[in-house]
């Protein structure tokens, strides 16, 4: 990067001040990406000696860029390039892959590593059929009337007891029933975002949430992830720069990386949210899919300052078409979110809410949850075993998330993610490219392999074919 900076030419006789010339040239490099985010600018004395100017000129240029939020400083460390907010949705790499799927013969027989849903035989169909029948017999046509916009009260009471098992203590007055997690994200965006607001997301992140924020006129900043959660030092530097409306994250089995936050990181995240007066959206899609000995402890369970908006979906653990979820709302945002929910669809289906309450009252959560975890754990062990057998020898790598339904695989040096997925399609294997989860559309040398909906045989055959692709590339 220094070579790029030191190639800048300053005109000492120009009417434009030297500091402005330097700042404008650096700003151009930041904007076009040739000076990457979080890279360190050369020290002031080194810059002054190279350009033959007074150190004050360099300090002034850096200060000018800092005012423009293009750089930030760390005490004792120097000056660094700021990330620029993403303002529009890049074309998802997945769309390009979907166009190519039409050219693959017998696609219905493809081994599909992109689906995160459980197989149909795990859905509790008989128990729900009984619940549906009970509600219809009990309430007749009244089963289809609107419920309270916040949700059917007996269901909210049941869900409060369920949340308590995860350490989240809340009352029914703070619990909003929603038609799936994606609706929850969209409602929060509708309620809380104004055009031009900044939202922080994990990098990489779930494109569905990113798209919802951008559709409301927000600008996104991606926060890099370490093995135990967000890089909190960089997060704080960005908080000083941008003052986001909120931070979006997943505390366990993050999409797409599978990363889970350490308790230390969770506590630090809450401290920073309080210090810089922002909220955190915590999405829980896969906390039920934990295969280790310890149960997940949601960020919301530690939220003594009421800074977390917790969203949970039941689509993964029960049935995708159920389209049911919940939000736990801090008091300060509750009114705006309730209004946004009402203007969106008045209320989530009363019949489905009453049926879910009947199902939970009769069956509870634990039996089905245990069954799903046993199934998911078996698929996880199979996927890990086959990835070790076929992918690691070809130079790929991955870490063990101990939960969720996917592996985040780093491809060998020099192997492009999208090119890899294209080659896999030729072998009738469908894979999610890492670039699909990048908010700026930048290329990724990762792929996500979701194993929940595949038989053991297909997992092995698919991994073997992917290993062959790596060997050929």
Write the layout of secondary structure elements.
Layout: H1 2-6, H2 18-31, H3 44-51, H4 55-67, E1 71-74, E2 78-81, H5 93-101, E3 111-112, H6 125-139, H7 153-164, E4 175-178, H8 181-192, E5 198-203, H9 207-215, E6 219-226, E7 229-230, H10 232-242, E8 246-249, H11 263-275, E9 279-284, E10 308-313, E11 325-328, H12 331-345, H13 350-363, H14 366-390, E12 406-410, H15 417-426, E13 429-430, E14 432-433, E15 446-450, H16 456-472
Helix pairs in contact: 2-4, 3-4, 5-15, 6-13, 7-13, 8-9, 8-12, 14-16
Give a quick rundown of the structure:
The chain is an alpha/beta fold. The protein folds into three domains: 2-81, Winged helix-like DNA-binding domain superfamily/Winged helix DNA-binding domain (Arc Repressor Mutant, subunit A), CATH 1.10.10.10; 93-121 and 368-472, Alpha-Beta Complex (Aspartate Aminotransferase, domain 1), CATH 3.90.1150.10; 135-364, Type I PLP-dependent aspartate aminotransferase-like (Major domain) (Aspartate Aminotransferase, domain 2, 3-Layer(aba) Sandwich).
Molecular structure report:
The protein is 43% helix and 14% strand. By secondary structure, it is of the alpha/beta class. It has three domains: 2-81, Arc Repressor Mutant, subunit A, CATH 1.10.10; 93-121 and 368-472, Aspartate Aminotransferase, domain 1 (Alpha-Beta Complex), CATH 3.90.1150.10; 135-364, Aspartate Aminotransferase, domain 2 (3-Layer(aba) Sandwich). An eight-stranded mixed sheet has the order 4-11-10-9-8-5-6-7. Strands 12-15-14 form a three-stranded antiparallel sheet, with helices on one face. A two-stranded antiparallel sheet has the order 1-2. The longest helix has 25 residues, at 366-390. It starts with a helix and ends with a helix.
């Amino acid at each position: 990067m220094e070579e790029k900076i030191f190639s800048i030419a300053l005109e000492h006789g120009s009417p434009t001040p030297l500091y402005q010339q330097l700042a404008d040239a650096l700003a151009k490099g930041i904007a076009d990406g040739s000076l990457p985010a979080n890279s360190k600018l050369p020290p002031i004395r080194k810059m002054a000696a190279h350009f033959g100017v007074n150190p004050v000129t360099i300090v002034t240029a850096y200060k000018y860029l800092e005012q423009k939020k293009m750089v930030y400083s760390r005490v004792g460390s120097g000056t660094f390039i700021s990330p620029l907010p993403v303002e529009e949705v890049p074309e998802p790499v997945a769309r390009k892959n979907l166009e190519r799927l039409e050219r693959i013969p017998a696609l219905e027989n493809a081994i599909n590593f992109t689906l995160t849903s459980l197989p149909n035989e795990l859905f509790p169909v008989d128990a729900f059929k009984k619940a549906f029948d009970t509600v219809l017999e009990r309430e007749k046509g009244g089963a289809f009337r609107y419920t309270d916009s916040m949700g059917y009260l007996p269901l909210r009471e049941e869900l409060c007891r369920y949340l308590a098992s995860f350490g989240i203590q809340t009352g029914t007055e703070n619990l909003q029933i929603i038609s799936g997690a994606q609706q929850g994200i969209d409602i929060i965006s509708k309620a809380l975002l104004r055009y031009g607001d900044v939202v922080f997301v994990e990098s990489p992140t779930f494109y569905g949430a990113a798209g919802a924020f951008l559709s409301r006129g927000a600008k996104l900043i991606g926060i890099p992830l370490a093995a135990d959660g967000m890089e909190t030092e960089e997060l704080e530097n960005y908080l000083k720069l941008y003052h986001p409306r909120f931070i979006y994250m997943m505390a366990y089995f993050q999409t797409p990386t599978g990363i889970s936050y350490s308790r230390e990181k969770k506590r630090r995240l809450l401290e920073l949210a309080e210090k810089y007066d922002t909220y955190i959206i915590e999405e829980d899609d896969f906390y039920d899919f934990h295969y280790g000995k310890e149960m997940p402890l949601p960020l919301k369970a530690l939220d003594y300052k009421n800074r977390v908006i917790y969203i949970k979906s039941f689509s993964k653990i029960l049935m995708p078409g159920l389209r049911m979820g919940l939000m736990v709302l801090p008091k300060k945002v509750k009114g705006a979110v309730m209004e946004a929910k009402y203007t969106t669809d008045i209320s989530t289906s009363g019949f489905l809410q009453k049926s879910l309450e009947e199902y939970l009252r009769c069956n509870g959560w634990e039996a089905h949850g245990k069954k799903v975890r046993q199934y998911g754990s078996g698929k996880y062990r199979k996927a890990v075993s086959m990835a070790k057998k076929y992918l690691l020898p070809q130079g790929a790598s991955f870490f063990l998330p101990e939960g969720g339904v996917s592996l985040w695989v780093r491809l060998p040096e020099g192997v492009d993610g999208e090119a890899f997925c294209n080659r896999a399609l030729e072998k009738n294997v469908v894979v999610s490219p890492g670039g699909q989860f990048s908010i700026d559309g930048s290329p990724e040398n990762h792929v996500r392999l979701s194993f929940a909906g595949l038989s053991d045989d297909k997992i092995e055959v698919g991994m073997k074919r992917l290993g062959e692709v790596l060997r050929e590339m």
